[in-house]
Amino acid sequence: MDERIPSGAAIVVGMPRVLLIEDDQAVRDGLSMALGGRGHAVDAVATGEEGLARLASRPPDIVVLDLMLPGLDGFEVCRRIRAAGDLPIIMLTARNEDIDVVAGLAAGADDYVVKPARAQVLEARIRAVLRRTGQPSSPVPVPAEIERHGDLGVDRAALTVTKGGKPVALAPTELRLLLELTQVPGRVLSRQYLLESVWEHGYFGDSRVVDACVQRLRAKIEDDSSAPVYVQTVRGFGYRFGPL
Predict the structure, then answer these.
(1) Helix (H), strand (E) at residue 18
(2) pLDDT at residue number 16
(3) At how many degrees (to 10) do helices 208-221 and 98-106 cross?
């Protein structure tokens, strides 16, 4: 049996499909109604088990996932979704606590919203995630050839990455982050710049989403993620790609 979760259903123009996994009925009903009124087709379930089953039978374009679920909690649901595919995930957390946010991002979430979630904020995050998990754009012309950075090969036209000639499976946000960094090798990019260019967050964005994505990216492209060669930290400033 193929357990890979589809990366998303075909998005009907103006009607992206959202799978909402939330055990609180009042929150579930309120967000379903609000998002539906803003042009989303919402499929809402109460448990992680139901959510995973629904993914297989009715693939969404994005998952909005409460972390504090009964039974199979949101962290485990997030890990299973991410292990099986690159479906975009926004997590809902009841508290803006470091341990919850960091754990959820480390599990593979693309972004998060703190409850009580205002519908317009959640809807804006959904739109932003769907935009950036589509075709990543670049302000510079797309080269015809594959870029070579040490053992890494980056094909901006095909949106593929290889290491040592072997494909590297990157989630869409990880790919966009790598494309942003490799546009300007050696240049330090601040977390705020990356939040605005990759995540489309404004001034009040949370840099933890950048740090978590960097860690996931390093785990996939570095020989030793504790001693990175490609994505390097410049303490107090941000990140740079290389020099190799």
Answers:
(1) strand 17-21
(2) 82
(3) 30
Instruction: Yes or no: say if 215 and 106 are a contact pair by the CB < 8 Å rule.
Output: yes
How many helices and strands in the chain, by DSSP H and E? Answer: 8, 12
**Mean pLDDT along residues 156-176:** 90
Q: What is the pTM of this model?
A: 0.69
How many residues are there in the chain?
Answer: 244
In tens, the pLDDT along 15-68 reads: 789 999 999 999 999 999 989 888 889 999 999 999 999 998 988 999 999 988
Specify the domain boundaries for CATH 3.40.50.2300 within the chain. Answer: 17-134
Integer CA distances (angstroms), 65 to 23, 50, 81, 219, in order: 10, 12, 11, 24
Q: Where in the chain is the domain with CATH 1.10.10.10?
A: 147-241
- Residues near 40 by beta carbon (within 8 Å), at least 6 away in sequence: 15, 16, 17, 18, 123, 126
What gap in Å lies between CA 87 and CA 89, rounded to an integer? Answer: 6
What does the mean pLDDT of the chain come to? Answer: 85
**Whether domain 147-241 has CATH 1.10.10.10:** yes
Where do runs of H (alpha helix) occur along the chain? Answer: 25-37, 48-57, 74-84, 98-106, 119-132, 172-183, 191-194, 208-221
- The whole-number average pLDDT for the span 125-146 is 65
Q: Which residues of 4-37 are buried (b: 16+ CB within 10 A; e: fewer)?
A: ebeebeeeeeeebbbbbbbbbeebbeebbebbee
CATH level 3 topology of 17-134: Rossmann fold (3.40.50)
